[in-house]
Design brief:
By secondary structure, the chain is of the alpha/beta class. The protein has 13 helices and 19 strands.
């Protein structure tokens, strides 16, 4: 299929990614009878246009969405003051790990940057490289199969649907660049899906180990996960975390989405086309690993047309999923993964929490922080790989971009940032300055599985809350360095 045909099918879409799972439709209380074994971290998406031009808010409202541009997200999380100081990720490399990759990502990144007036990258299509320009590059470990969708008559399990990961790639790459426009981006791909057998997870962990061992990046963003109970045993899960141990020892920060099944988990096998929800609350790994910074999801209710520094400005228009909370600028997303690990004990950094927090017992609490992730209040992403043109929200891209900016300020990788996050949150003054505490909503996505409410302080839906980047980034660097 020629390039011209690919571009003709290009489109802007909006939706949700921030967490792992499959695309779900219908009311949140209705559990699907069968769930695909393999799928990238996209909860839901909608195609907005077949044009290279971003849709208007009126177009988004016509399909019950509120669409956020990169500038609106930058404004909502107060990134303007950092940019004004030259803190934009320059000199830092973000490694994004996805299965398969995308054959059109270099083109899609270029369209995205032009559409929103963002810094071009050396390595995107049609760009002449120049000194000081950030670079986009790809590292295909163990092979690089073409990202083609299976034929419509296919009776396979879906694991061969390589094009499905393309939307995750566009989301991760484009949003990371939007938040840290001067950071380098390394897209690391593996030729196997996120399966529980001898291929997916081992390949991905080995890829991350390669990134750490060869000092290729100081931030790793992951777009894969599985319920802790889905592994054959805790031992088999623990054998996969070698890359996280090495990352912590080498100053590399590892980030992971907390899930998009709310408080629910999913039992699945590599050879089955279906799966079943766990009857009791469960969390997803690698997000549940104490060496990973776990990111939960929210609905962002701020002005999607903001282009200046206006942190937490309420939007007068129809912010979907936020109508029931007219005075809130951000509410918990019902699909946000969260709860308590059944494998990992509570790490010492969770021993002290902000006043009013949900209590954490003897096991690791998930997530650590939150970011916009809900499908009805998503970010625009561009993709041209047919037939899966789609988009997602922000979690993966925003979190990696923020850490890249902190690494730039630090002059090197911060490593595991969780102890510093909880140290800042334990002090009432810095907690109020550095975080937006999300206190409304819950993550009971399925009526048969109990969820958790968002509360003051830490909770198993949004963690400590979402970042006020202008304050959190410099404070995080100080805290990591013992100040």
């Amino acid at each position: 299929m020629g390039t011209r045909h690919l571009r003709r099918l290009a489109r802007f879409v909006t939706g949700s990614i921030a967490t792992f799972g499959v695309a779900l439709a219908g009311p949140a209380s209705a559990a699907p009878a069968a769930i695909a074994v393999f799928h990238p971290t996209v909860a839901e998406y909608v195609q907005m246009t077949t044009s290279d031009t971003p849709p208007t808010q009126a177009q988004c409202a016509s399909v019950h969405r509120t669409c956020f541009s990169p500038q609106a997200i930058q404004s909502a999380y107060d990134l303007g003051p950092l940019y004004a100081k030259g803190l934009n990720g320059k000199g830092v490399t973000i490694a994004i790990v996805d299965s398969y990759g995308s054959d059109t990502i270099a083109h899609d990144l270029h369209v995205f940057d032009q559409a929103f007036g963002l810094q071009p990258m050396c390595g995107e299509e049609g760009v002449t490289c120049a000194a000081g320009m950030p670079t986009f590059s790809e590292l295909h470990l163990f092979g690089a199969p073409a990202t083609q969708a299976p034929p419509p008559t296919s009776n396979g399990t879906g694991q061969e649907n390589k094009s499905a990961w393309a939307l995750e790639v566009s989301l991760d790459v484009e949003t990371s660049h939007a938040i840290a426009p001067q950071a380098n981006i390394l897209l690391v791909t593996t030729p196997t899906a996120e399966t529980l057998g001898v291929q997916g997870f081992p390949d991905m962990m080995n890829a991350e180990q390669y990134v750490v061992d060869h000092h290729l990046a100081s931030v790793i963003s992951q777009s894969f996960a599985s319920t802790e109970e889905a592994f054959g045993s805790s031992t088999s899960l623990l054998q996969l975390r070698h890359a996280f141990i090495s990352a912590a020892e080498n100053g590399v920060t590892v980030l992971g989405s907390s899930g998009d099944f709310g408080s629910a988990g999913l039992i699945k096998t590599p050879v089955s086309a279906g799966g079943s929800l766990l009857p009791n609350p469960a969390v997803w790994w690698p997000s549940s690993d104490p060496l990973v910074t776990s990111v939960g999801g929210t609905n962002l209710c701020t002005d999607p047309m903001a282009t200046t520094n206006q942190p937490r400005t309420l939007y007068a228009g129809p912010v979907f999923r936020c109508q029931g909370q007219p005075t809130q600028t951000e509410v918990a997303w019902i699909g946000s993964g969260g709860g308590f690990s059944h494998v990992f004990s509570r790490p010492s950094y969770q021993d002290t929490l902000p006043a009013g927090s949900t209590s954490i017992g003897s096991m690791r609490g998930v997530p650590d922080i939150g970011l916009q992730s809900a499908p009805r209040t998503g970010a625009l992403v561009f993709i041209s790989l047919p037939p899966d043109g789609s988009s997602g929200l922000l979690c993966a891209g925003v979190r990696a971009g923020l850490v890249a900016i902190a690494d730039q300020l630090n002059g090197g990788g911060l490593g595991l940032i969780n102890p510093a996050l909880y140290k800042l949150a334990a002090k009432s003054t810095t907690y109020a300055n550095d975080f937006f505490d999300v206190t409304t909503g819950n993550n009971q996505a399925f009526s048969t599985i109990p969820g958790y409410p968002a509360t003051t302080g830490w909770d198993p839906v949004t963690g400590l809350g979402t970042p006020n980047a202008a304050n959190l980034v410099p404070d995080l660097v100080k805290a990591v360095n013992g100040h």
